[in-house]
Amino acid sequence: MEPTTNAASAPGRVERAGARVRALADRIVELLGHRAVVIATLVLFVVGALLIALTARESQYDEPYHLGIIELYAQQWGPRLENTDAALGLGDVQFYGSFLFHWLASFPYRILAALGVEGFALLVWMRVLSIALVVATLVVWRRLMLELHPSRPVANVTTLLLATIPLLPFLAATVTYDNLLLLLTGCYFLAVVQLVKTGGASTRLWLVSLALGMFASVTKYSFVPVFAVVTVYLVLVHGAGWWRAVRANGALGVEGEAAPARRLALPGALLVVGIALVISRYVVNLLRFGTPSPDCADVATVDYCRAWAPWDRNYGLDPGFDDLDPKFSDALVVLFTEWLPGIASTLGFVGVKSGEQIVSSAGSALSREWFYLAMILVLVAALLFGRVVPLALRVPLWLALIVHSALLFWVNYTDLLTLGLLMAYSARYFFPYLPYLLLLAVAGTAFALRRTRPDSRVMALGLLAAALVMATQGGGAIGFFAVAEPHWVHPESPLAGLAEVLHRIADRIVMLGY
To answer: CA 370, CA 372: separation in Å to the nearest integer?
Structure first.
């Protein structure tokens, strides 16, 4: 007798299997929104960054320079240094506007020194403080993401993806003003988004955002134009909302009936301090030298300035290169063939000072291509699907990114025309804006899939799995230890043996090598 089959049984089994897969995907997405995912992400990030901090020689990202200025500040109390012989090799420290990190870091530095901590141990403790700044930044970034798009799975996944960028844990383990800038700008954009949500009606959020912008501006000069443009935009678009709220509810604006006036005291005091710091540098410089950021030779002797390696390099290059005229077509070629690929490639760029040489790596053979492709995909997804975040919240953040990108490219392109080299560009300069871009890409892609496919969560998890697999090829701290041969390790490191073991393991994980 011939066996009989039910014609509908095969499709039915497929449908039931598909339903089980979708149910599993729903459960995984639910778990991704759990607080444990955030905690695990932060713990893994801290462990990786601490291992780097405990093993690496001085970072190629100007760590000796930053430590040198911190050490000078530790010998006094005030925020103003002088261009004396004690500062030789550090450039202009008297009028340079990017001073807040060094001055603040000098206080824990002097406490540690007073306790007898010195040498590599002192460096490690300062690195630990830097790691704390970046961990706090990740927490703030996640809060910002939730303000932009209230989805915990999306915010947690975006935070996880940020933590897998190899440059971020390496930068966290570096004593540099970039880490304080990340925290301040993260808090600033969080305050801006919250302010926009009130229609500009909160006096407290105006004060908080302005104070944070002031502090970020004296942490790193490159934020000044971004802060200025975003502030002008906020005043033009939301200033009237604040005035209406003040007339209706009093000085606190929209919070006038619910909050006591003393809530203005702390942000108001911080704003006064921020204004004083900005005036002491940028306004004084503008009045005295005609520019908020004078060249070293405008404030010190040429011999003094030449002791600072970057200035001496430019001083030597300039006379031997005939300046070129800027051309729009040439600028586009440089933008798309050199600058943008260069920015992407530095997402995995790590290195240390070994003796008098810098030893570095741009990442694994696979990750270098992946970073450029990922950058393109993130930009496209953010532009195409970013409408999942309200336009009013997107505009100030896009404006900040555009201003920063345009000015950085112009500075780099001008160097190319006048010195013959395209230099001083790095993905780390974009970290203040990367969380926003990545959130738009992740949230927008998830929303687009949800609108077009019944198995959207299955596909989204597949994309996440692919990204995490790629992260094993040089992501996170793997990117450092895969290339950290013995001459990368500090001679005083207590973990030299462990570093060698981690190097062998990471080297085997990365399939295509470096």
So the answer is: 6
